[in-house]
Every structure is written in C-alpha cells, then in structure tokens.
Amino acid sequence: MVVMALDHANGFIAHGKYAPEMWIGLFPDYRGDALAFLTRLVTHLAAPGFFFLMGAGMALLVRSRQAGGWSRRRIVRHFLQRGALLIALQLLVENPAWAFGGTQIPGIYFGVLYGLGGAMILGVLLVLLPGRWLLPLSAALVLATEALLKAVATSYVGTSVGWRVLLVPGFAPEMTVLYPVLPWLGVAGLGMAYGRWLGADRTRALRWSTGLGAAALLAFLILRLLDGYGNIHPTPGDGWINLLNTVKYPPSLTFLLMTLGVNGLALGLLARLPGRAGRALQPLVIFGRAPLVFYLAHLYLYGLMGRLIDPKGIGIPAMIPLWLLGLVILLPLCWFYGRFKHSRPPDSPWRLL
To answer: Which range of residues forms the domain containing residue 199?
Structure first.
C-alpha cells in the first residue's frame, strides 16, 4: 500500500511518471535518470503483491468460513459479490479520481480494481479446486500470457473488446485497459496455493518464502539475460536500468519473477522480525487491514495535493515529504475503518469493503 501510494503521489504531485511499460509501442526511456527509475521500480512490488495476497486471502477465507459452517454456495456468492463491488468501485469511484487529479485517461478505464474484481470472480473456478490442479493451472496462465498475446492481435486497436478486458492492455478513444483479468488471475491462483499452504503450516510457509523469493529472482536474472521468451519484447538497451525495466502491461514472466521474488523475500523477512521491530511496523498492518478504503482515499488525497500545490508538478525530491504526509493523514482513517470492519459479523455487507 505504501509503495503504491508513492507511485501515485509521483504522478499527481511530482508529475514524474514516464510512459507505462506496455507490451507494444514505445517503452519508457529513463535516459539514465536513476531517481526517476528507482521511484518507479520500487512501486512495481504493489500490483503483483495485491493479486498474490488477494489469492492467499481467498484461500484462507475458504478455510475459515468452511470451519464456521458456510456452504460452498455461500462462499462463492461472497466472492462474486465482492468482485462485482470492486468493478463497480473502479467505474464509479476510482475513475473520477484520476480526472480529479488531472490524469487524462482515454475512454472507460479498466484499472487495478477491475483486475482484482475480475480475478476474484473468475477465481471461484480456481479457489475450490483440488491442490493438484490449482498450482499447475495458475502457473499455466502466467506462462501462457506472452503466447496468447502473439496469437490474438498485433495491436490493441485491432483487438476485440472481449480480448481487451481479458488479456490485451492498451489505449483507445473508447476504452483503456491496464489490468486485463487472465494474466493476473494466474498470479491470484499462485497466491491461493500459497494461502492453502499458509493455513496448513504457517511456520513452514513463511520460512520457505525467503528461499522461494530468492529462487524467483535467480530465475528472473537468467531469463532476462537470455532475453527470449518471458520478456515479451527484447531488452531496450544496456545497463542496469534496462535490465530491470520489464514489461508490466500485461505482466511479463520476468516482471513477475522479479516482483514476486522481492515480495517473497520481504514476507519471509518480516515474519522473522523480533517483537519490538514488528511493533514499529504496526502502521503497515493498519493500512493492510483497510486496503480498499486506503486505495480510494489516497487517490483523492494526492490528487488534491497536486491541485493545491502546483498543477505543473514539483519534482520527485519535493514530492517525498508530501507522500509521507499523506500516509500520516490516512493512518487514522484506516485505523478507524479497520476496527469498525473487523467488529462486524462475517456476513455483514461492511466486510465486503
């Protein structure tokens, strides 16, 4: 949540964002600007972490609700309702926030809430599968993204609406898609497999997170240096920036190995923190217990900051203190809503937010 807020503060306040890392068309060229690239690179951890942890949360919810007597039909209904709510919030609440902050997005925007909602709806086909099917199918979805792109179309405009919202991201006057469902559904499915492991053996799952994260980073480095399948398109040039500058829309295999690898390392290391250090990071837990409220509120907050301070942007160094100020402002809101939400019964509509 915190690094995602940095990305959006960068866009709304600093106006320091470059072109998105698309599968086709112009690729962002940072021209050696290490600060601009690193500010973007660290925020790449957010989206894969969202989808992976959403999948883990779905698996843990199935486990807890079944123990509480919920039927499969009731669990499926819960996921369908929450997925539909996320898509509605994308169209009705998130999209106006971008316009409020001065970001012009062509047509109807299908962003991360749409991707999460769609992955949750289709994820009901995965989350109740036996373990021997869940992991292979999820991995297949991730691995197939690049091959499917080559089979569907050579451009975004020439692709049908159905394939756009399911697979092919891009910009057109009538609609903009950045988070098509199918590539991210595979990431959520991997999270579901991890969530089952976490529920069955928490200590071992957390202990292995570090090793799995390191293995993913090693695989990223090998695939990136080979510069073949898994990169979607070739490395744009030499140097460490181009090595780490991977395709995000849709997520290439190298992008996912890099970001999920770091997420795995972070998860394992955070689980090993001693009590005092863990308590120092309590604000992160507060944000994580109210992620949807944080997400929607932070867009309007940083958009307002950008409008009030300088609509033309103030640069990344001057933006950093304002990003931190925004986190301080959001903390009590998330604390209050998190306490309220988790005091509601499991079937309360408030638990959907």
So the answer is: 2-352
